[in-house]
């Protein structure tokens, strides 16, 4: 009986791995291939996806670590349920990317209006193009620095660079800077991601860092925020 239970667990684990590796065999059966993008969806894919993907490509090209040999597998959900099945630990997020296999899962999506919604009551909407860029940039980072370094990379660098390339956040940038750095801070993920984007933007666009030096340089986050505040007070 003990061995039967063990084998049953092994079988369930194998089924789950196949489920995650090949979502197109279950829920995401509608498929198009366009440029570097393999798009899978649980409903018919609207033709507006091509315009969205053109915007995605345009933004990805701005990254110094862009690699045109990579292909992106993107699984788009028409409602919250399919996404939450594949990404239960991040069911309140806009999207999630599985490392190594790099399957990108996106929450409830309106392709026609280029929008993604997360299952939350606030900061719950952003453009589909920016979400795809953010998640695709995760793959660019892993491809550039390797799985091990990427796993240990500080969250603010990793997420900040993805937000930098996407050029968008669920919070308005100028208003968000005031919110983040004038005492009206928040503990929401949207505020955290905006702060990460601000710091990475400051280091790359103002201080002249490259992606390589951003990754390799050790920064004191408190000192960096104070430095940015001094810069902000002079120029904003």
β-strand amount: 5-15%
Overall geometry comes to globular
> Poorly predicted ranges (pLDDT <50, ≥5 residues)?
none
Rounded radius of gyration (Å) = 19 Å
Question: Whole-Å distance between the termini?
Answer: 70 Å
Number of strands: 7
Helix content: 40-55%
| Major beta sheet summary | 7 strands, mixed
Order of helices and strands: HEEHEHEEEEHHHHHHH
Q: Given the helix and strand composition, which structural class is it? A: alpha/beta
Number of helices: 10
Mean pLDDT: 88
What does this 3D model show about the protein?
By secondary structure, this protein is an alpha/beta fold. 52% of the residues lie in helices and 14% in strands. It is built from ten helices and seven strands. Strands 1, 2, 3, 4, 5, 6 and 7 form a seven-stranded mixed sheet that branches. A hairpin with a 7-residue loop joins strand 6 and strand 7. Helix 2 (49-60) packs across helix 4 (128-145) and helix 4 packs across helix 6 (155-166). The chain starts with a helix and ends with a helix. The model has no long low-confidence stretch (mean pLDDT 88).
């Amino acid at each position: 009986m003990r061995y039967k239970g063990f084998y049953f667990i092994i079988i369930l684990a194998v089924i789950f791995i196949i489920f995650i590796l090949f979502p197109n065999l279950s829920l995401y059966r509608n498929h198009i291939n366009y440029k570097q993008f393999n798009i899978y969806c649980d409903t018919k894919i609207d033709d507006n996806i091509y315009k969205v993907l053109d915007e995605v490509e345009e933004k990805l090209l701005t990254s110094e670590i862009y690699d045109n040999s990579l292909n992106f597998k993107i699984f788009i959900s028409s409602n919250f349920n399919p996404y939450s099945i594949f990404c239960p630990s991040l069911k309140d997020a806009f999207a999630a990317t599985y490392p190594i296999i790099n399957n990108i899962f996106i929450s409830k999506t309106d392709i026609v209006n280029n929008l993604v919604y997360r299952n939350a009551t606030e900061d719950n909407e952003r453009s589909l193009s920016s979400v795809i860029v953010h998640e695709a940039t995760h793959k660019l980072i892993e491809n550039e620095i390797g799985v091990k370094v990427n796993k240990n990379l500080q969250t603010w660098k990793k997420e900040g660079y993805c937000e930098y390339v996407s050029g968008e956040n669920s919070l308005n940038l100028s208003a968000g800077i005031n919110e983040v750095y004038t005492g009206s801070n928040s503990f929401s993920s949207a505020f955290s991601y905006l702060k990460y984007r601000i710091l990475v933007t400051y280091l790359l666009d103002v201080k002249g860092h490259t992606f390589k030096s951003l990754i390799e340089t050790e920064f004191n986050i408190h000192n960096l925020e104070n430095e940015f505040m001094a810069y902000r007070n002079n120029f904003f």
